[in-house]
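Reopening this one. Same input as before:
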Amino acid sequence: MDQTPVAEELRVVVAQLVRRFRQDREIPQPQFNVLSTLMRRGPITTSQLAALEGVRPQSMAHTVAQLLTAGLVERHSDPADGRQMLIEISASGRTSMVEFRRTADAWVNDAISTRLDAEERKTLKAGIDLMRRLVDE
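Same output, byte for byte:
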C-alpha cells in the first residue's frame, strides 16, 4: 500500500509545528542550532561545530562571533591543547535556551489540554511513539 499521502501530510504537519515553535524564539536559526549543540555536547571547537552543523568553518566563525557579541557563548583555551579555543554556552545562553523550551512546552501543553479530549491525548501519545520509531536508528 502506497504511504505517499500519509508521508506528505506528516511532513507538512511537522513543518507547521516547527514553524509554530520558531515563532516564540528571538534567536536566529543558525545561532539556535549552535546553542542547542553546545547544550547537548558541551564545549567544542568552531571547526567541530561547523562539521556537526554541516556548514563551512567561515560561516560558523561568523555565527560564533554573533553569539559571542550577544553574550550567549564564551571562548576558552582548550586545556588539552592550548592552541585551540573551545566554544561553550554561557549562563545567559543557557537561560535563553531553557526559557525558550519552557515557553514552547507551555504552548504545547496548553494546546493539548484545551484542544484534545482524553482519548485524543492517548492517540497523540501513541502517534508520538510511532514517530519516534520512524527517526530512531
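So the earlier flakiness isn't reproducible anymore. For the record, DSSP finds six helices and two strands in the chain.
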